[in-house]
């Protein structure tokens, strides 16, 4: 009998939203996405602390600025062994507002993958969609470096990323809904979920950008995922992937048939700083969630680095759990 996961795979490419690469033996997905928070999460498990400790021991003379990317890339390398597609590896969120440093870190990540024998065509550089991040992506894409733009909460970010030639944009479904719930809004049907509606609209807003894929991210429940069946990509947590296996819900693809009017020949010109800032500032939710998302990634990245540089990684992790 088909379950919802099997049906979903027939309509969208699926990615796993996790650094827990051993779980990939249980989930047949195409791609994988990572970020500082997900790496921090898996370090609660002793098997991954041991993995990190072994890499540290083999590279004990490396300076911190080389060790941290090496550890992150090694997680990506293990993931690539277990999937047929691509892995997204994020630049440090500490450089989210610096074009030059974002570009430099992107190349550092790629060089590290190359040193480990990986095919760079399978690597996406994940970059927060700030103005500076989008400018960096524009430079990188012109040089053939494929980018996955994360923390997407607005049309202006999406159009600017597509104008920059980004390979993938990742709108955050659940975090959009979280913001509206916090403001007191509620809805009964998933079709009324602000996060779902935002991403469905993006499919038509970006209809003329054939080279940019939309990857739905940050799902809170199975219904949100199923409502976006037919999107280019969906990145899903291991828990929700398991949940999809246990249900058999029909997929309604009618949202793809023109419930929104496609945007024709729209040019956003959003790489102009003044225009971008004004349009983003006009969307309070997007402004709030972008700043909050970068702050959370920065905090988790700092926690990760402190743990890695600790003399006793096991005790450091235990103290945080």
What does this structure look like?
The structure is a single chain. The chain has 321 residues and is of the alpha/beta class. It has one domain (4-320): TIM Barrel (Alpha-Beta Barrel), CATH 3.20.20.70. 50% of the residues lie in helices and 11% in strands. It contains 14 helices and eight strands. It has an eight-stranded parallel β-barrel with strand order 1-2-3-4-5-6-7-8, surrounded by seven helices. Helix 4 crosses helix 5. The chain is globular. 43% of the residues are buried. The model has no long low-confidence stretch (mean pLDDT 91).
Global outline: globular
User: Ranges with pLDDT <50 over ≥5 residues?
Assistant: none
CATH class identity: Alpha Beta
Rounded mean pLDDT is 91
How many individual helices? 14
Biggest sheet overview: 8 strands, parallel, barrel
Strand order of the largest sheet: 1-2-3-4-5-6-7-8
CATH topology, by name, is TIM Barrel
Can you say what the CATH homologous superfamily is?
A: Aldolase class I
Q: What's the domain count?
A: 1
Which bin fits the share of residues in helices? 40-55%
Structural class computed from helices and strand pairing: alpha/beta
Please write the string of helix (H) and strand (E) elements: HEEHHHEHEHEHEHHEHEHHHH
């Amino acid at each position: 009998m088909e379950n919802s996961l099997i049906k979903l795979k027939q309509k969208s490419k699926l990615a796993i939203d996790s650094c827990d690469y051993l779980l990939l033996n249980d989930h047949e997905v195409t791609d994988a996405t990572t970020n500082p928070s997900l790496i921090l999460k898996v370090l609660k498990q002793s098997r991954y602390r041991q993995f990190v400790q072994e890499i540290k021991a083999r590279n004990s003379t490396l300076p911190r600025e080389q060790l941290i990317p090496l550890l992150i890339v090694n997680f990506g390398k293990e993931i690539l062994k277990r999937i047929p597609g691509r892995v997204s590896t994020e630049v440090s969120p500490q450089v989210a507002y610096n074009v030059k440093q974002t570009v430099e870190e992107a190349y550092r990540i790629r060089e590290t993958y190359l040193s480990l024998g990986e095919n760079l065509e399978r690597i996406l550089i994940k970059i927060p969609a700030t103005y500076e991040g989008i400018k960096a992506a524009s430079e990188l894409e012109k040089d053939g470096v494929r980018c996955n733009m994360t923390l997407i909460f607005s049309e202006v970010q999406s159009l600017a990323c597509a104008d920059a030639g980004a390979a993938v944009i990742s709108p955050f479904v659940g975090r959009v809904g979280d913001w509206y719930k916090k403001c007191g809004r509620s809805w009964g049907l998933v079709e009324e979920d602000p996060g779902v509606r935002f991403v469905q609209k993006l499919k038509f807003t970006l209809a003329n950008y054939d080279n940019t894929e939309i990857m739905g991210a940050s799902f809170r429940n199975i219904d949100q995922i199923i409502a976006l069946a037919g999107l280019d990509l969906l990145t899903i947590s291991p828990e929700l992937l398991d949940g999809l296996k246990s249900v058999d819900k029909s997929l309604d693809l009618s949202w793809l048939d023109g419930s929104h009017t496609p945007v024709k020949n729209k040019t956003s010109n959003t790489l102009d700083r003044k225009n971008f800032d004004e349009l983003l500032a006009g969307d309070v939710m997007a402004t709030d969630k972008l700043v909050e998302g970068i702050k959370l990634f920065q905090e988790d990245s700092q926690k990760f680095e402190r743990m890695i540089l600790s003399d006793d990684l096991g005790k450091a992790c235990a103290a945080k759990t």
